[in-house]
Amino acid sequence: MQELLIQILINGLVSGSAIALVALGFSLVYHTTRIFHITFAALYASGGYLFWYLSVGQQFDLASSLFIATLFPALLSLFLWLIIYKPLTNSGAEHNELMVASVGIMMIIIYLISLIMGDDPKLPSSALGKTLPARYLQLIVNIIVITVFLLITSTTRFGLRLRAFRDNPRLLGRLGINNFYLTGILFLLSGGIAGLSAGLSTNDLGISPFTGVHVFINAFIAVVAGGSGRISGAVAGGLFLGILQSAVVFLAGSEWILSLSFAVLIILMLVKPDGLTGLARREA
């Protein structure tokens, strides 16, 4: 029983760190600009497929495949901000309109991937995991990236600007901080995290066209469950959700993962509306 519990915990940490990393990438945009960046799911899929094409189709080494699979979604995310989100924002589009546009972009990208690469799942190359098992590589890299981002956002001037941008972007602009460049950096970082996470996951489990959608759903649940409007909340929610899902797979089977995840989310919102890391709001 003890070995079983340890295995559930390890599996939970692996999947939880993956969810936490994706939730971190999504929350970089969502918690600062309030844009519900659903296209993030398509950026994830593009990174996963590019990693598979380079590592399996072209026999690139692991590091090169991960680097390119991280860079491409980052640049694509920035490009989408410049040609879609920014013009819509400048024209006075509301958040709901931006969300609809984001859904449309996501579907276009995903179906283009499906058209080019086919609908069948792409399996990872067994040659890439000989030095270190793919799951442990994923866990190590996820923890390192998450830790670095948490340190940056909590201890540096850049992190202070992110918090100010979240709370009062107009005031930040009046203080001489260029919101345009800051938003561009956020979209660049968010897309890069999506690509890196997708590459690591593809190296372990493979990829299919709608994998990014399922991953995004988990990330969104983690962001809401974590609460607080801070990146640390998204990370806490991701780790909590990963361990929960690992236990669900053992007790009830993988087909119950999303159902029970949403059920726990609803219960958590009823019991603790501010999330796992949220602070209770003082009534006026």
Give the secondary structure arrangement, pairings included.
Blueprint: H1 2-33, H2 40-57, H3 62-90, H4 95-117, H5 134-155, H6 157-167, H7 169-174, H8 179-205, H9 211-226, H10 231-251, H11 257-271
Helix pairs in contact: 1-5, 1-8, 1-9, 1-10, 2-3, 2-4, 2-8, 2-9, 3-4, 3-8, 5-6, 5-8, 9-10, 9-11, 10-11
Mean pLDDT rating = 88
CATH first level: Mainly Alpha
The second-level CATH architecture is Orthogonal Bundle
Helix- and strand-based class? mainly alpha
- Proportion of residues in extended strands: under 5%
Number of strands: 0
Tell me the number of helical segments per DSSP (H or I, 4 or more residues long).
11
Helix and strand element order: HHHHHHHHHHH
CATH superfamily annotation? ABC transporter involved in vitamin B12 uptake, BtuC
Shape descriptor: globular
- According to CATH, the fold-level topology is ABC transporter involved in vitamin B12 uptake, BtuC
List unreliable stretches of 5+ residues: 279-284
Number of spatially distinct domains: 1
Helix fraction by DSSP (H/I, runs of at least 4)? over 70%
Radius of gyration: 19 Å
